[in-house]
Amino acid sequence: MTDRLLPFDAPLERLKALHPKRIDLTLERMLRVCKALGNPQGKLPPVIHVAGTNGKGSTIAFLRAMAEAEGLSVHVYTSPHLVRFAERIRLNGTLIDNDYLAGVLNRVEIANDGQPLTFFEATTAAAFIAFSERPADLLLLETGLGGILDATNIIAAPALSLITPIDYDHQAFLGNDLTTIAKQKAGIIKPACPVISARQAEEAQIVIERAALKAHSPLSVMGQGFDAYREADRLVFQDDDALLDLSLPRLSGAHQIDNAGLAIKAARLMGWSDEAIDKGLQSATWPGRLQALKAGPLYAALTDKASELWLDGGHNPHAAKALRAHLDILGSKDPKPLKLICGLLNNKDADEFFAAFDGLSLEVVCVGFSSDAATDPEVLAAAAQSKGLTATTTISPLEAVKAVQTDAPVRVLICGSLYLAGDVLALSEETWPI
């Protein structure tokens, strides 16, 4: 990787300084700056708007692969990025050009005229300009945080609204109970626009049902109106109109069956073919989410090449439970000593994260990463030890991989933060297909 400055670096830094808070949920600033820009949010292709706690990016990855297999041109907006900021904005299948990105950011800066604007609002406005100026058949739009007051939620009438599983995360901004959090996420539901929901806890499901009823929006709920499950080496999807025998998702993890099911239901409502759906399941990629690393310096540091190295950016209790389920499946098929290399932001619940691994025989190595908000490894190790886990610290993921070597093959999982995942992927471009 190079340290040279890119054309968009300077405007990004200036935009970061416009608002003292990194997160400040309101739509007023976003509506103001977009009005000054000519309201690009009203000139977008049909939008599939996706909110939820976990699974948003994976669901969008499936949708993008399915839509492109259908022959559609697709814009995509996701966050955060792992290595390069341009990962957030994909225009017709290609990451936004550096010079064009710099140009739209400069236009936001000029239109904003020095007024308060959060970084996410500024970059979302820039993305809306790009999406409005480059023709496409579809825009897959991921919320940044929450829903009702998220900067993306100035879209008036999406083609579909999708809500992935809702769980505890960002409680300081979204609330401390599932009902309150769900009210934020369900805020993307728009009048008379179809809604698809993943399986939810009862409290969250009640909120979504009430919001859809109030908006007169048709609601499809996984486990009720449709479902997806694994049967042998196939994925079975069924709804009121069809029973489909499909390929298993390319993305690893049992939880990806549900993410795929959500995407399949959306694809069917959009009228895409079964062939495109199946092809999308086989071709979807999403770096940093249960990604098996088979290249780069960390993989090279494994002394026994029968060892496995996995990377996942999951950073909350719900994600930790999904990781635990995947490790259980791997362990039942091919037992190996298990090593966890972990780093968490200091606003995450480390106790609950490590609680998901209760009963597993594993060694935890805690590391820091490139964020000012990274939890001190010693503090993180103490949290792991409080849950009965063996935990040590080291200075980097590379040193951690070296530290967990044994005479036998090992299974290593690097997890806990998308920032940590980005650091790992940045070490070698071979490990993160885009």
Summarize the structure in words.
With 434 residues, the protein is of the alpha/beta class. The protein has two domains: 9-283, UDP-N-acetylmuramoyl-L-alanine:D-glutamate ligase, CATH 3.40.1190.10; 291-431, Protein-Tyrosine Phosphatase, Chain A (Alpha-Beta Complex), CATH 3.90.190. Helices cover 38% and strands 16% of the residues. The protein is built from 16 helices and 17 strands. The protein has helices at 9-16, 28-36, 56-69, 98-112, 119-133, 171-174, 178-185, 202-214, 255-269, 274-283, 297-300, 317-333, 350-355, 377-386, 397-403, 418-426; strands at residues 47-51, 74-77, 89-91, 94-95, 138-142, 160-163, 195-197, 219-221, 226-231, 234-239, 243-246, 291-292, 308-311, 338-342, 362-366, 390-393, 411-415. The strands form three sheets. The chain has an eight-stranded mixed β-sheet, with helices on both faces. A hairpin with a 2-residue loop joins strand 9 (226-231) and strand 10 (234-239). Helix 3 (56-69) packs across helix 9 (255-269) and helix 4 (98-112) crosses helix 5 (119-133). It is globular. The two termini are 15 Å apart.
Question: Notable features of this structure?
Answer:
6-stranded mixed β-sheet, alpha/beta, 16 helices, ATP-binding, 17 strands, nucleotide-binding, UDP-N-acetylmuramoyl-L-alanine:D-glutamate ligase, 8-stranded mixed β-sheet, single chain, globular, about 40% helix, about 425 residues, Protein-Tyrosine Phosphatase, Chain A
